[in-house]
Backbone:
């Protein structure tokens, strides 16, 4: 049995850092485990321009712990009005690494998102020309479509037509949750990748309802049935470079989760690598963890792999009941449970 894992320093290819006091509270957790992260732009108001991304990037750099060399990789929030000129500015900036598609109404702070991809043709065409990746929250928003089917329907109704119209567009299908998405990404032609969260590898939808409703297991896209979780584990541990790590760590204050209309999002930055190690070990695939965590994402984003290593040790560690969150409280995923691994840096 392996008791110590040494990996190339990993990166998080899908992360929510928020802003202000919340940013200051959560950034050290990510900066401790990851060298870089793709930072989601769904602030209020959203990060829609390169100028706003530059300012947000400075706030993140200023919030880093003493001595940290963590590098935020910025993204722009695609809207119906994003221009080809804005995409060109982003591509030239050197610090914007992707543009994010939120179908309007699909998830947290997506109100300003895209109402109709037909309105984004100029921006998508510019992205294709500049080699700028499109990160996709892949769910349809139609209230008539069952919540659990929204990812599958998105593939058929939105993603396949989009990629047919823009075959050179580099796409990251974010936080995939279904066998349908894993199969699509594995078999699709052209440049496509997918991020997979630790929680979608570890839990199925029963976790949301164990003995009562469990708001801290509620995220979007929502956890699915066991057969989908198994398909995600198979994809993540397959060694296929299209699948890579993206925590989708999405902090919300405890009172905003434990509410009559609780926010979607799981906080996993505190124990991200421990959670992934647990999932990979259960699949007898610890030997595949490094490439998933530290190689394939960098390769997709055409960035150098990190120098240096990190270590995980087999040791019991209780997940805290709550963490400070800028004057409020933040409940990490699986609070109170015991992890079998410890990230030691
Ligand atoms: N994943 C989530 O459940 N929530 C994310 C938004 C997102 O990634 O869809 C958030 O910003 O809170
Ligand atoms: Zn999302
Ligand atoms: Zn997210």
Residues:
């Amino acid at each position: 049995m392996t008791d110590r894992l040494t990996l190339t320093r990993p990166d998080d290819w899908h992360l929510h850092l928020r802003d202000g006091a919340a940013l200051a509270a959560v950034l050290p957790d990510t900066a401790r485990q990851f060298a870089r992260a793709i930072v989601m732009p769904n602030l209020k108001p959203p990060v829609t321009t390169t100028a706003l991304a530059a300012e947000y990037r400075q706030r993140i750099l200023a919030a880093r712990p003493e001595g940290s060399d963590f590098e935020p990789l910025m993204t722009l929030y695609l809207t119906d009005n994003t221009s080809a000129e804005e995409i060109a500015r982003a591509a030239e900036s050197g610090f914007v690494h992707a543009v994010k598609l939120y179908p309007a109404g699909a998830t947290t702070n997506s109100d300003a998102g895209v109402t109709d991809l037909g309105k984004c043709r100029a921006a998508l065409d510019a992205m294709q020309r500049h080699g700028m990746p499109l990160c996709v929250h892949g769910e349809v928003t139609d209230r008539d479509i069952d919540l659990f089917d929204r990812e599958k329907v998105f593939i058929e109704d939105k993603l396949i037509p989009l990629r047919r119209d823009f075959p050179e567009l580099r796409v990251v299908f974010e936080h995939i949750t279904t066998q349908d998405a894993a199969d699509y990404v594995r078999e699709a032609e052209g440049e496509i990748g997918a991020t997979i969260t630790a929680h979608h590898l570890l839990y199925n939808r029963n976790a949301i309802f164990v003995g009562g409703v469990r708001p801290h297991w509620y995220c979007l896209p929502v956890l699915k049935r066991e057969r989908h979780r198994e398909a995600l584990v198979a994809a993540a541990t397959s060694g296929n470079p299209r699948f890579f790590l993206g925590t989708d760590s999405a902090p919300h204050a405890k009172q905003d989760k434990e509410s009559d209309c609780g926010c979607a999002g799981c906080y996993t930055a505190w124990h991200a690598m421990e959670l992934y190690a647990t999932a990979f070990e259960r699949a007898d695939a610890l030997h595949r963890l490094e490439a998933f965590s530290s190689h394939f994402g960098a390769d997709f984003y055409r960035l150098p792999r990190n120098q240096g290593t990190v270590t995980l040790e087999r040791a019991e560690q209780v997940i805290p009941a709550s963490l400070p969150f800028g004057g409020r409280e933040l409940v990490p995923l699986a609070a109170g449970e015991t992890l079998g691994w410890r990230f030691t840096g």
In short: The chain has one domain: 12-305.
